[in-house]
Amino acid sequence: MYELSNRHILLGVTGGIAAYKAADLVRRLRDQNAFVKVVMTLAATEFITPLTMQALSGEPVHLELLDADAEAGMGHIELARWADALLIAPASANFIARITHGQADDLLSTLYLACAAPKFVAPAMNQAMWGQPSTQTNIQTLSERGVQILGPAAGEQACGDIGEGRLLEVADIVSEVSNHFQCGALAGRRVVITAGPTQEAIDPVRYLSNRSSGKMGFALARAAAEAGGETTLIAGPVQLSCADNIRRVNVISAKQMLAATLKAVDDCDVFIATAAVADYTPVQVADNKIKKNAAEMELTLQRTDDILATVSALPQRPYCVGFAAETDDVIAYARGKLERKKLDMIIANDVSDQTIGFQSDENAATLITADTELLLPRTSKLNLAKQIIDQVGTRLPGHSD
Ligand code: CTP
């Protein structure tokens, strides 16, 4: 049984020499029993004819934003709703820039905005264009928004240059899209994740907080959603965006995070606490801005509730995963937390190493359960998140190998 069987793949083709490979891509997707509809930009039609794409896909090719043949004349909305996945291959540097900035001045870019289905972008361009900081920033932005970037591959280019920028092999593009539809480690599971810092108000303009960036929690939410989990992300104040397939609840204080978590964990299968929740909060929040009259001032703080321990003590508790950031005796302290908070798993990281952790894009950790200790070597936070999600998936009740 093909993963792509009966799936609706909307293929966007943009202008570039690799556009001819889109013909083979349609054929291979059809070989896997996918339904394929093709949308081409005007520039793409200079490289390959719509007739070729129509013959191979067995469907009319869409070129114009205003489509008189579409019901209610809104072809882009109908196509966006039809798609189980939107695949743009090849994606030119110009088209990548346009979708990064939300432009909607032709059918394909408008469709991109209108489409809620998972998105795949396979860049193809000259190696120097690929290497430009502007292109790299655009790609990173798309990736952070949950778009899967496929490739590019490296090698000899049509222009004679050698380097990165070739369209990924067609067979590899098909298998990446196909993998997406495989049952992931968390398929059918409900997952709740806390992320980021909290802010504890002192007065209307001041607060206590910490340096957590939220990156690890956001990476875990992405990995959980990609693994098929229905994912809720409870986020403290951070400058990060997340993909459409993640339900995001924004909170400010530890108290709000606890309330949002208790609301979300009802009936969930997995709870992962990555948030750096404030351990203390001011006993009183001043109604007005505090004036600097005295040479010294005292702030009385009280302990906040431990969100993770509260969830793990629930009668119908989910599988509970905690994080422990330590500077010394990392494993011993983390194990202590695992036992004290009655967790199923704890991820220990050594925050004495300044190059990983809080603000960094990379991390390394040790995954600890009652009877295992697994070293997860230094890698990107997204990779680390994928490994953690896979490990959680295999340990859930009802999992079968
Ligand atoms: N946690 C929580 N609610 C809190 C405090 C912590 O959910 N109020 C969670 C964190 O998200 C993390 C784990 O508990 O998963 C961290 O445990 P904790 O004992 O609070 O670690 P530290 O704050 O580092 O504690 P200590 O300063 O005692 O080492």
Brief rundown of the structure:
Strand 6 and strand 7 (162-166) form a beta hairpin. It contains 13 helices and 19 strands.
Description:
With 401 residues, the protein is of the alpha/beta class. It is built from 13 helices and 19 strands. It has helices at 21-31, 50-57, 75-82, 93-100, 107-114, 127-131, 133-144, 170-181, 215-226, 254-265, 307-312, 330-340, 381-395; strands spanning 8-13, 35-40, 85-91, 119-123, 148-149, 153-156, 162-166, 190-195, 200-203, 206-208, 230-235, 246-250, 270-273, 280-282, 301-303, 319-326, 345-350, 362-368, 373-380. The strands form 5 sheets. Strands 12-11-8-13-16-17-18-19 form an 8-stranded mixed β-sheet, with helices on both faces. It has a 5-stranded parallel β-sheet with strand order 2-1-3-4-5, sandwiched between helices. The protein has a two-stranded antiparallel ribbon with strand order 6-7. The mean pLDDT is 92. Cytidine-5'-triphosphate binds next to helix 11 and strand 16.
CATH topology of the largest domain: Rossmann fold
Q: How far from one another are the termini? A: 18 Å
**Main beta sheet: strand number and arrangement?**
8 strands, mixed
Q: In oligomeric terms, what are we looking at?
A: single chain
Q: How many helices does DSSP assign?
A: 13
Structural class: alpha/beta
Spell out the key features of this protein.
401 residues, alpha/beta, Rossmann fold, 2 domains, eight-stranded mixed beta sheet, 13 helices, binds cytidine-5'-triphosphate
What topology does this entry show?
Elements: E1 8-13, H1 21-31, E2 35-40, H2 50-57, H3 75-82, E3 85-91, H4 93-100, H5 107-114, E4 119-123, H6 127-131, H7 133-144, E5 148-149, E6 153-156, E7 162-166, H8 170-181, E8 190-195, E9 200-203, E10 206-208, H9 215-226, E11 230-235, E12 246-250, H10 254-265, E13 270-273, E14 280-282, E15 301-303, H11 307-312, E16 319-326, H12 330-340, E17 345-350, E18 362-368, E19 373-380, H13 381-395
Parallel strand pairs: 1-2, 1-3, 3-4, 4-5, 8-11, 8-13, 11-12, 13-16, 16-17
Antiparallel strand pairs: 6-7, 9-10, 14-15, 17-18, 18-19
Helix pairs in contact: 1-2, 1-8, 3-5, 4-7, 9-13
Bound molecules: cytidine-5'-triphosphate.
Cytidine-5'-triphosphate binds at residues 194, 254, 273-275, 277, 279, 304, 306-308, 322-325, 337.
